[in-house]
Design goal:
This is SRR1-like domain-containing protein. By secondary structure, the protein is α/β, with parallel strands linked by helices. The protein has 15 helices and 11 strands. 37% of the residues are buried.
């Protein structure tokens, strides 16, 4: 990576951004009035040495006290609806061998399959196998994409270690799957538009006006100004900024923050900067409003990853999809603004979840393993750690970091 730029990664809000990744921090109070950079607790950060792995997952504070805590020897009640997963040592070996879980060629191939709408999809797994699955959208009119559409769901490291138990074992080594959405069905009601486009556009403009008066807006510009940005940056790619653009400051500031970043880059670099937004949860009213404000929108979930390259600034400040995991395999954007690295995520893989789940008198009430594996949508992995190590080494440092 060029020595004049390191990636950015830090806090979990729109006001959080990152420089050459030698510092990190999370806003203690996400509101519209951070006074100075110190309010965001920016501080030097290094990856700590790996600590002794835990033998049991730590309990969450919000978990209510269960009857088993009163009587730890009482048997655990079996949940008949829990996801059946199993440990895959072959999956761990495949990951440790360095085999890529995703490549741009793989993603482009599957995107082309969705566009062609064939009778069957062919999933190319990283172990070399090709899995044939029926396409539930076969024969449908793809022009009806806002009512019915195919979404790609990225799986990743934890699914590789604990695939879904099935007779066919077709999910072994799967790194993504698909689901068919029909917003006219009750279970997908949250995909239905909630506003008239003109009303939502008015609300979005109000959110922009609110954002323009916030200190957080100038914090982003202040942080970006500390670094010698690559002059070749030509696009801002956003992942998972959310469909709710009106509810509160945190949700309604995501897209205005992206517009601020584009505006800053265009003024500083003199380039025309594309602005791309990718979120499978977008509804048709949100899509129309975002397009009016200069966003290119994708709801399938693949194109954004294909577009990421060394000329990109990536904005992914919510724990959605497996953005960090996918990028660790396929690309190194010039700037990466995302949530902080979590060292404790690396310990997850060292826990024998199957054994703990099957122990009738084990320590603490264990949840459905499927829920445990999905609790963090984009958990850190050995490869995301290696990626951030690269960004740490890129530098340079600037005064006042």
């Amino acid at each position: 990576m060029d020595s004049y730029m390191g990636s950015s990664y830090t806090g979990s809000s729109a006001g959080s951004t990152a420089g050459s990744s030698k510092w990190s921090g999370t806003p203690s109070n996400y509101d519209c009035k951070p006074k100075t950079l110190s309010d965001y607790e920016l501080k030097p950060s290094t990856f700590p040495n790996r600590k002794r792995k835990p033998t049991v997952p730590p309990p969450r504070e919000e978990d209510p006290k269960s009857p088993r805590e009163e009587n730890p020897k009482s048997p655990r009640e079996e949940n008949p609806n829990k996801t059946k997963l199993r440990w895959s040592s072959a999956g761990r070996d495949l990951y440790d061998s360095g085999k890529l879980l995703w490549t741009k060629l793989l993603l482009k191939d599957f995107q082309d399959q969705i566009a062609a709408n064939p009778k069957h999809f062919f999933y190319h797994h990283p172990d070399g196998n090709v899995i044939k699955e029926e396409n539930p959208a076969f024969g449908e009119d793809l022009k009806e994409g806002l009512n019915r559409r195919t979404q790609v769901v990225f799986l990743g490291f934890r699914y590789l270690l604990y695939p879904v138990e099935s007779d066919s074992r077709r999910f072994d080594f799967a790194t993504f799957s698909t689901r068919r959405i029909d917003i006219r069905k009750p279970q997908y009601a949250h995909f239905q538009p909630k506003y008239q486009v003109l009303d939502l556009d008015r609300k979005f403009k109000e959110a922009e006006e609110h954002w323009a008066q916030c200190e957080a807006r100038y914090l982003i510009e202040n942080v970006l100004s500390k670094y010698e940005l690559p002059p070749t940056i030509n696009k801002v790619i956003c992942f998972g900024l959310g469909n709710d653009i009106t509810r509160d400051f945190e949700t309604q500031s995501q897209h205005p923050a992206a517009l601020t970043i584009r505006e800053y880059l265009e003024e500083k670099l003199g380039n025309n900067i594309r602005l791309l937004a990718h979120d499978p949860e977008y509804t048709s009213d949100t899509v129309e409003v975002l397009k009016r404000h200069g966003f290119e929108v994708d709801m399938v979930g693949i194109q954004g990853f294909i577009d990421v390259d060394e000329n990109s600034l990536v904005l992914s400040i919510k724990r959605c999809a497996r953005v960090k995991q996918v990028l660790a395999d396929i690309a190194r954007p010039a700037v990466f603004i995302t949530v902080p690295f979590h060292e404790q995520d690396l310990h997850w893989a060292e826990i024998d979840w199957i054994k703990l789940q099957s122990d009738p008198t084990g320590p603490g009430p264990l949840e459905d393993l499927g829920i445990v594996s999905r609790r963090r949508w984009d958990p850190d992995t050995p490869r995301t750690k290696a990626m951030f190590d690269e960004y740490y080494d890129a530098g340079p440092w600037t005064d006042g970091e």
